[in-house]
């Protein structure tokens, strides 16, 4: 057994779990349950009362967090300790949104001035593009941004741009290209004018195959339109921590926005990786996004564990993973602008906490990161909610909804809200056999038929959910929301004693992919690999038309 599973809090949680009553009972017994199990902070109402929790379970979860030294680990992250131990790096996405007077040190040096300088460079660039001072090579004003990047260098800017559509200034349109599948870039470039298109190339490492290939194709598209080589400087900017490689690639040194090895890719939208967002919503709004995240940082760093939103979210999610065998969790956004958020949280959480060894490298005897998925409500209600309500898997859900719509139209928003709240209620209370039977009382079915149908209509209930409400979706609330999930991910990694900040699991596929690429040639008969891989390669080689 590991240190964690041997701990008294873990053992006590295991023994206590079977005694937790159905949530229906818990709500009946305690009229104060919502007041006790909800929290208001950073512009959110966080309702966690519809969970399989009683006072004792909550107390023990906080005890587990304490026994895993969570408070000290939070301090270590904010202080810039090298908590990404396998890469010997600090983890300081929080420094990207820290106050300009803050003093945060990496290897003895305050990194805040450098962060501020980069923000100033971004601000100037946004102003130049918006005011038309920055022009394309034929002197025309830029109208379209094409952002090229993948993973953390794509999902953050993409979902933030989508979420903040009502805040776009109207100066620009933006298109995102991530996949190496040519269809992605070809379709995005259709209808764009090379003279008025600016490419923002985002790659922390400047070595990601997809991003380099797409950038080369973008450059070819520009040059094929008749532009001279010198035009590249007017149409390409890059964000990277590998400045030498970017200049070697041909990006003008003045057009490079730095980032740093102490920012993880999936935590990087607050750095210059967020440039497409700033170009769309303007720099003041971008600063609001940072301010929202900073507010959540402050909350996370200072609030006691039992009133700390990311801590509660993290511990509740861990409760289901480790003590109920739940393998998946769902994020349901009741807001069309937030439809991309589940995919973002999926990468954030699964790339961070999809690990099977602890910091010392020992294999774990407990479950880590769950499968995160989700989508937009109410659409999901007519697709996968059936399984969440009546399937055999336990899938805790996060419901996220702004109280006010950017598009108030008739009864739409009230209907959206009623669906959101109704779903959390149905998941919690379910429907008993007796209730199902009663619903059939006036039907013409025989008693035997009623019995069968009633059994099919039974919903077990006791299915957990959190609800996160905010007044309105704004740059600030979006910043707080994303930071909330970042810190939730951190909390779980800290308890599980894993490194949430490396991603060795994605490396092998990249390396093998390069070896395979060398074999893809119509005149080649491959026999270097296993029988399946050889056959797939040879099928490809012999079918090129
Ligand atoms: O920004 P880069 O270096 O191009 O990397 C892109 C993405 O690739 C990964 O390394 C692995 O998928 C992510 O963590 C990262 O965000």
UniProtKB/TrEMBL annotation:
<dbReference type="GO" id="GO:0006096">
    <property type="term" value="P:glycolytic process"/>
</dbReference>
<dbReference type="GO" id="GO:0097367">
    <property type="term" value="F:carbohydrate derivative binding"/>
</dbReference>
<dbReference type="InterPro" id="IPR046348">
    <property type="entry name" value="SIS_dom_sf"/>
</dbReference>
<comment type="pathway">
    <text>Carbohydrate degradation; glycolysis; D-glyceraldehyde 3-phosphate and glycerone phosphate from D-glucose: step 2/4.</text>
</comment>
<dbReference type="InterPro" id="IPR023096">
    <property type="entry name" value="G6P_Isomerase_C"/>
</dbReference>
<dbReference type="InterPro" id="IPR018189">
    <property type="entry name" value="Phosphoglucose_isomerase_CS"/>
</dbReference>
<comment type="pathway">
    <text>Carbohydrate biosynthesis; gluconeogenesis.</text>
</comment>
<dbReference type="GO" id="GO:0004347">
    <property type="term" value="F:glucose-6-phosphate isomerase activity"/>
</dbReference>
<dbReference type="InterPro" id="IPR035482">
    <property type="entry name" value="SIS_PGI_2"/>
</dbReference>
<dbReference type="GO" id="GO:0051156">
    <property type="term" value="P:glucose 6-phosphate metabolic process"/>
</dbReference>
<keyword id="KW-0413">Isomerase</keyword>
<comment type="similarity">
    <text>Belongs to the GPI family.</text>
</comment>
<keyword id="KW-0963">Cytoplasm</keyword>
<comment type="function">
    <text>Catalyzes the reversible isomerization of glucose-6-phosphate to fructose-6-phosphate.</text>
</comment>
<dbReference type="InterPro" id="IPR035476">
    <property type="entry name" value="SIS_PGI_1"/>
</dbReference>
<dbReference type="GO" id="GO:0006094">
    <property type="term" value="P:gluconeogenesis"/>
</dbReference>
<dbReference type="GO" id="GO:0048029">
    <property type="term" value="F:monosaccharide binding"/>
</dbReference>
<feature type="active site">
    <location>
        <position position="382"/>
    </location>
</feature>
<dbReference type="GO" id="GO:0005829">
    <property type="term" value="C:cytosol"/>
</dbReference>
<keyword id="KW-0312">Gluconeogenesis</keyword>
<dbReference type="Pfam" id="PF00342">
    <property type="entry name" value="PGI"/>
</dbReference>
<dbReference type="InterPro" id="IPR001672">
    <property type="entry name" value="G6P_Isomerase"/>
</dbReference>
<protein>
    <recommendedName>
        <fullName>Glucose-6-phosphate isomerase</fullName>
        <ecNumber>5.3.1.9</ecNumber>
    </recommendedName>
</protein>
<feature type="active site" description="Proton donor">
    <location>
        <position position="351"/>
    </location>
</feature>
<keyword id="KW-0324">Glycolysis</keyword>
<feature type="active site">
    <location>
        <position position="510"/>
    </location>
</feature>
């Amino acid at each position: 057994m590991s240190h964690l599973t041997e701990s008294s809090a873990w053992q006590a949680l295991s023994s206590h779990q079977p005694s937790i009553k159905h949530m229906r009972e818990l709500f009946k017994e305690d009229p104060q349950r919502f007041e006790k199990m909800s929290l208001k902070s950073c512009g959110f109402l966080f309702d966690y009362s519809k969970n399989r929790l009683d006072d004792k379970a909550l107390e023990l979860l906080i005890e587990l967090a304490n026994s895993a030294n969570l408070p000290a680990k939070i301090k270590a992250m904010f202080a810039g300790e090298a908590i990404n131990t396998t890469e010997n790096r600090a983890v300081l996405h929080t420094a990207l949104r820290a106050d300009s007077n803050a003093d945060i040190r990496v290897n003895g040096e305050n990194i805040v001035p450098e962060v501020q300088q980069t923000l100033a460079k971004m601000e100037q660039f946004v102003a130049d593009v918006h005011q038309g001072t920055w022009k394309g090579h034929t002197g025309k004003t830029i109208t379209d941004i094409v952002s090229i990047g993948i993973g953390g260098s794509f999902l953050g800017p993409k979902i933030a741009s989508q979420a903040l559509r009502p805040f776009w200034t109207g100066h620009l349109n933006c298109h995102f290209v991530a996949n190496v599948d040519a269809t992605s870039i070809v379709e995005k470039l259709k209808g764009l004018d090379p003279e008025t298109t600016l490419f923002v190339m985002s790659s922390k490492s400047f070595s990601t195959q997809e991003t380099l290939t797409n950038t080369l194709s973008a450059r070819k598209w520009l040059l094929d339109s008749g532009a001279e080589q010198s035009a590249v400087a007017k149409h390409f900017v890059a964000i990277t921590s590998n400045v030498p490689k970017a200049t070697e690639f041909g990006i003008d040194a003045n057009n490079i926005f730095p980032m740093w090895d102490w920012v993880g890719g999936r935590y990087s939208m607050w750095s210059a990786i967020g440039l497409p967002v700033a170009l769309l919503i303007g720099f003041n709004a971008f600063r609001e996004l940072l301010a929202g995240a900073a507010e959540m940082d402050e909350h996370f760093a200072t609030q006691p564990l039992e009133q700390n939103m990311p801590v509660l979210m993290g511990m509740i999610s861990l409760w289901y993973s480790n003590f109920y065998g739940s393998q998946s969790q769902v994020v349901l956004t009741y807001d069309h602008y937030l439809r991309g958020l589940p995919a973002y949280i999926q990468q954030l959480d699964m790339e961070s906490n999809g690990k099977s060894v602890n910091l010392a490298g020992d294999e774990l005897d407990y479950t880590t990161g769950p499968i995160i998925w989700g989508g937009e409500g109410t659409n999901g209600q007519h697709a996968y909610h059936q399984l969440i309500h009546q399937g055999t898997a336990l899938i805790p859900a996060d419901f996220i909804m702004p109280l006010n719509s950017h598009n108030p139209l008739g009864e739409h928003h009230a209907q959206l809200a009623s669906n959101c709240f109704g779903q959390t209620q149905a998941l919690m209370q379910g429907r008993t056999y007796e209730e199902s039977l009663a619903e059939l009382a006036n039907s013409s079915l025989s008693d035997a038929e009623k019995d069968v149908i009633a059994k099919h209509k039974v919903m077990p209930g006791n299915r957990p959910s959190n609800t996160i409400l905010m007044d309105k979706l704004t740059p600030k609330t979006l910043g707080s929301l994303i930071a909330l999930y970042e810190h939730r991910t951190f909390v779980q990694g800290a308890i599980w004693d894993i490194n949430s900040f490396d991603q060795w699991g994605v490396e092998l596929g990249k390396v093998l992919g390069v070896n395979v690429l060398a074999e893809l040639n119509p005149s080649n008969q491959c026999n270097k690999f296993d029988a399946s891989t050889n056959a797939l390669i040879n099928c490809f080689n012999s079918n090129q038309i």
